[in-house]
Structure formats: C-alpha cells, structure tokens
Specification:
With 294 residues, this protein is mainly α. The protein has eleven helices and two strands. The two termini are 17 Å apart. The protein binds fe (ii) ion (FE2) (2 copies).
Length: 294
C-alpha cells in the first residue's frame, strides 16, 4: 500500500484508530475507470468529507460531557470515532490537494461545504427551536443521518467487485477501502450517542427521520453540483461525457440507485445501525488490507 499505517488501539474501544499517510503525488488525472465524470463524481464526494467529518466530530464533542453519556464504554467509542473521522478528514484533504494540482478548485468546494453545513444547522436551529429542538440535537441527528449514508455507501464498496474494479489506481483503492472499513467499524457510535441523549421516543424519531430526508436531498444536490463544476473545468459537461457515469451511478441497478432501500431503512422506528451485520465483511477486508492488529 502506498501509505504508512500506524495502528493505535484505543484501550477499550471496539475498533482502533489507524494513522495513515497516503502519497497522492502519482495519482492519475482520471483514476476511476479512466473516465472523467466517474472520477469527478468520487472527487465531489471527497470534497464533502473534510468539512463534513469535522462537523461529525464537533457535533459529538458538543454533547460528550453530558451526564447521560457517562458510560465509559460509550466514551471510549466516541474517542475512537473522533480519531477515525479526524484521520479521514486529513487524508481526504491531502487527496483533494492533489486534485487541486490538476487545476480543479476543490478547496473552494470544501469551503462551500462548510458554509452549507453552517447555514443548514443555523436555519434548522432557528426554525425548530420553538418546538424544543436544541442546536446540539440537530447537529447530532444530522451526524446520525450522514453516518448512515456513509456506512451504506461504504458497505457497497466493500461488497461489490464491479465497484472495486473502478479503482484503477492502487493509492485511491486503498484510500477508499480503508475509509469504507472504518465507516462500518464506527457506524453505530453517533446513533448510540443520539439515543443515549434523546431516547427512542416520537420526538427523537421525528427528528432523525426529518434529518435523513434533508441530508439526502442536500447531499444529492451538492454532490451533483460539485461533479458538474469539476466537469466544466475540463470542458466535459456534456451528455456524451457524462452518460457512462450517470448510468453507472443512477441507472437501473446503478451504484447509488441500489442504496435506496438501505438508506430508507433508517426510517424504521426500531432501526439500529448494527441491524445490518457487517462483521464478516469487515474481517475479510481488514485481512485484505493488512490491518491484522484491528
Ligand atoms: Fe469518515
Ligand atoms: Fe463516519
């Protein structure tokens, strides 16, 4: 793997924090199936991560000293979750910088993501405050919804050989597979924090259902807009240049289309992230990537 890996097992947490240091200098311009639109689709996702994952960390930190979260097991999970997300932010920032070197203004897309998150949380806090929903609750429920999105996409990456074949570049393959493993390792942490804080009653259920609908809508619009912006830089914002990606992602049995039932499973009142058991899949992939200390 074109990365230094340093695994620090956080005592007591059910998953470790792996300190990665990928080298993106040799990544080709169109590393996803040699296709501009497919590559930009993934880069647009990557542009969402640094600010998005910082938001997850901030939202969890904002509540972690609450007496309802004094359970030491959960506190250790929170520490490891924050450690993993901080590392994802760092490595996606480094990859995004390598795309910037090809002339794509990914820094601006990262900044737009940060502004969108702040604005959304600001507006939602104002609108929902009279109904008894705090800013902390809104931040955390947004984190839960987005974590469901990332773990769903990640499970597909780990399960589908056709998708894995898209990664023609080994560094990009390892970046996304490492990230996918960890999204599934920590998929229940924000949700467990949310339930410990706000319970499983109608108010908590309403808030997380609303958060999923808003989060999925915003992700779809923002990520599509970013993909279009990156394609425009190349002068490739045409049907001819995008049809392969659109079919790959949104066609019948496309990568994103296939996720819809799993994404909607979050709306089940008794939903819990661990209902979807990924233990065997994770063991297989940890061995595959040489993360045997995990
Ligand atoms: Fe992440
Ligand atoms: Fe995550």
């Amino acid at each position: 793997m074109n990365a230094k890996v340093n695994i620090s097992n956080r005592a007591g947490a059910s998953f470790p924090v792996r300190r990665m240091d990928f080298e993106f200098g040799e990544v080709p311009r169109y590393w996803a199936n040699g296709d501009a639109a497919l590559t930009h689709f993934m880069t647009a996702l990557s542009a969402l991560f640094p600010e998005g994952e910082q938001f997850f960390v901030n939202s969890t930190r904002a509540v972690r000293n609450d007496p309802k979260l004094e359970d030491q097991r959960l506190q250790k999970e929170i520490s490891a979750f924050i450690g993993q997300e901080a590392m994802h932010s760092k490595e996606h920032l480094a990859f995004n910088a390598s795309a910037q070197a090809y002339g794509y203004d990914v820094r601006e897309l990262e900044a737009q993501t940060g502004r969108l998150i702040n604005r959304t949380i600001g507006v939602a806090s104002k609108v929902l405050k009279p109904f008894g929903f705090s800013k902390e609750m809104i931040g955390l429920t947004g984190t839960c919804a987005l974590e469901h999105f990332t773990s769903t996409i990640a499970e597909e990456l780990l399960s589908n050989p056709d998708i894995q074949a898209m990664f023609m570049d080994q560094t990009m393959y390892h970046l996304w597979m490492w990230h996918a493993i960890e999204e599934n390792e920590h998929k229940a942490v924000a949700f467990d924090v949310y339930e410990a804080m706000y319970g499983q009653g109608p108010k908590a259920y309403f808030m997380r259902s609303l958060a999923l609908v808003i989060a999925m809508g915003l992700i779809f619009i923002t990520q599509s807009y970013f993909t279009a912006k990156l394609l425009r830089t190349d002068g490739k914002l045409t049907w001819h240049d995008t049809k392969y990606m659109i079919k790959f992602m949104y066609g019948y049995k496309g990568f994103m289309t296939r996720q819809i039932p799993t994404l909607l499973d979050f709306l089940r009142p008794k939903f819990h992230p661990n209902d979807q058991d990924t233990t065997a899949l994770l063991n297989k992939w940890r061995a595959e990537l040489g993360f045997n200390l995990s």
